[in-house]
Amino acid sequence: MIRVNNRDEIEWEEGLTVSNLLTRFGYTFVHIIVKINGEVIPREAHATHTVPDGADVRVIHLIAGG
User: Can you tell me the distance from the alpha carbon of 15 to that of 10, in angstroms, rounded to the nearest whole number?
Assistant: First the structure.
Protein backbone atom coordinates (compact mmCIF):
# COMPACT_ATOMS: atom_id res chain seq x y z
CA MET A 1 0.00 0.00 0.00
CA ILE A 2 1.03 3.58 -0.66
CA ARG A 3 -0.38 6.50 1.30
CA VAL A 4 -0.83 9.78 -0.60
CA ASN A 5 -1.22 13.05 1.32
CA ASN A 6 -2.01 11.15 4.49
CA ARG A 7 -5.53 10.25 3.33
CA ASP A 8 -5.65 8.19 0.14
CA GLU A 9 -4.25 4.66 0.00
CA ILE A 10 -3.61 2.73 -3.18
CA GLU A 11 -2.22 -0.69 -3.93
CA TRP A 12 1.49 -0.67 -4.71
CA GLU A 13 2.53 -1.71 -8.22
CA GLU A 14 6.02 -2.72 -9.21
CA GLY A 15 7.56 -0.07 -11.45
CA LEU A 16 5.15 2.67 -10.34
CA THR A 17 6.84 6.00 -11.06
CA VAL A 18 6.13 9.40 -9.59
CA SER A 19 4.74 10.52 -12.96
CA ASN A 20 2.36 7.54 -13.08
CA LEU A 21 1.18 8.30 -9.55
CA LEU A 22 0.56 11.97 -10.35
CA THR A 23 -1.41 10.98 -13.45
CA ARG A 24 -3.49 8.44 -11.54
CA PHE A 25 -4.52 11.07 -8.99
CA GLY A 26 -5.06 13.78 -11.59
CA TYR A 27 -2.34 16.14 -10.38
CA THR A 28 -1.70 18.46 -13.31
CA PHE A 29 -0.74 21.71 -11.58
CA VAL A 30 2.56 23.04 -12.96
CA HIS A 31 4.15 23.90 -9.62
CA ILE A 32 4.16 20.69 -7.59
CA ILE A 33 6.63 19.29 -5.10
CA VAL A 34 6.63 15.55 -4.44
CA LYS A 35 8.12 14.05 -1.29
CA ILE A 36 8.48 10.33 -0.73
CA ASN A 37 9.19 9.30 2.84
CA GLY A 38 10.38 12.85 3.53
CA GLU A 39 12.73 13.08 0.51
CA VAL A 40 12.01 15.68 -2.18
CA ILE A 41 11.99 14.09 -5.64
CA PRO A 42 13.24 16.53 -8.31
CA ARG A 43 10.83 17.17 -11.18
CA GLU A 44 13.34 15.83 -13.71
CA ALA A 45 13.31 12.48 -11.88
CA HIS A 46 9.51 12.04 -11.80
CA ALA A 47 9.46 9.89 -14.95
CA THR A 48 12.09 7.45 -13.67
CA HIS A 49 11.90 7.53 -9.86
CA THR A 50 9.91 4.53 -8.63
CA VAL A 51 7.69 4.66 -5.58
CA PRO A 52 8.53 1.94 -3.04
CA ASP A 53 5.92 -0.24 -1.37
CA GLY A 54 4.72 1.28 1.90
CA ALA A 55 5.73 4.79 0.86
CA ASP A 56 4.33 7.94 2.41
CA VAL A 57 3.90 10.31 -0.55
CA ARG A 58 3.18 14.01 -0.15
CA VAL A 59 2.12 16.07 -3.16
CA ILE A 60 2.30 19.78 -2.44
CA HIS A 61 0.88 22.47 -4.73
CA LEU A 62 2.90 25.68 -4.64
CA ILE A 63 0.67 28.71 -4.80
CA ALA A 64 1.19 32.38 -4.14
CA GLY A 65 -1.24 34.76 -2.60
CA GLY A 66 -1.39 38.23 -1.34
Answer: 14
